[in-house]
Amino acid sequence: ELGLGGPLPWAPAEPTGGPGFLAIHFRAGNESARSWWDPGRHPLSSLEAFLECAGRAERELGLPGETRWFLSADTAAALRAEPVVRLRQRGKIAALGEGWRIAHVDRSSASLGFEGYVDSYVAYLLVASARAAVLSRSYFGETAAEVGAVPDAYFAEGCVRVDLRSS
To answer: Which CATH entry fits the domain spanning 22-162: 3.40.50, 3.30.70, 1.10.10, 3.40.91?
Structure first.
């Protein structure tokens, strides 16, 4: 149980009355334990800027401080980063469980891709279902925000607010 406020696409279409949740999509690219080749996108050292942008977005949008954040990342190293560990311990950040298989839908080998395919699309649907999103410059996060018509999206680099609903 991730404990994220809905609505979620697989849940009953009843309004929850809550603020929803904020999604963070962090794509390092080349930090994926050699599971696939990908050009570097964001160094792990930039993860803190993603979290700072999420905090700024939360304040700008008037979301309550207890709004949960969902972190989708292409490397387990992001989940082990000290600021993420602290926020997870406080219950601020949710992530897919320990059995989560990280795969890149179009760059992983077939065997890894098939193992991680479902998990990748669960993360995709969660990003698409968010009240707001902080995104890497990545097809995965950008199209999730477009498909889900996420009301408020930010590119993490510079914490720039963008409207992806009309792209």
So the answer is: 3.40.50
